[in-house]
Design a protein that fits this description.
7-stranded mixed sheet; about 30% helix; single chain; alpha/beta
């Protein structure tokens, strides 16, 4: 089983995941972080905006956790199209992003003190933001705030027609076990039709 963890950032997962991101550009070649990336056998340093360096229909699954919100709309659907291309028929992609609808639902309770209970991550008192909304949804590296409809549209434009809020099977089980930040995440599953 081969699963790509696209836009992995610091969330680099063990095999069967292959972690792909362009992290080396953030570090000096002599830094411990750069050397760590070099030592990771299942890490590929690659700018995903240039495509995914795998053959068509060659991987079983795609894991895109808290990645698509870092891209603008055009970049996002084009990378999803690449994910669709490299998936085997019946391959599964999971896309997980901060859930804008959930942030709206709990907005009236969103304070530093309540962040642990509402979001599963406690903001420390030294954090300059007054709410998790400002800290996480409007994190300065985010280019989109997504809802189920807008994430569905990106997956659909990227080539998927079988999109749902759940999925079953061996690949789906592995993807599900790796999901993080479930309290405030929106997760959609997309299967590549035969």
């Amino acid at each position: 089983m081969q699963i790509l963890n696209v836009g992995c950032g610091a969330n680099r997962l063990p095999e069967p995941f292959i972690n792909i991101d362009s992290l080396k550009s953030q570090f000096n070649e002599s830094s411990p972080e750069y050397k760590q990336l070099d030592s990771e056998k299942n890490y590929i340093d690659h700018d995903l905006r240039e495509g995914i360096p795998f053959q068509s229909s060659s991987v079983d699954g795609i894991f895109a956790s808290h990645f698509l919100e870092h891209l603008d709309l055009q970049e996002a659907w084009k990378i999803v199209a690449e994910c669709h291309r490299v998936l085997k028929p019946n391959g599964v992609m999971v896309a997980s992003v901060p859930n804008t609808s959930y942030f709206r639902e709990v907005n009236h309770l969103d304070t530093k003190a309540m962040s642990g209970e509402l979001f599963g991550e406690q903001m420390d008192e030294g954090n300059p933001h007054t709410s998790f909304f400002d800290c996480a949804l409007f994190f300065n590296e985010h280019k989109q705030a997504l809802t189920e409809d807008s994430l569905w549209a990106i997956l659909r434009k990227g080539g998927f027609s079988d999109i749902s809020t759940s999925c079953i099977g061996d690949v789906a089980d592995v993807l599900l076990s790796a999901l993080n930040r479930p309290v405030f995440s929106l997760t959609l599953w997309a299967v590549k039709k035969v």
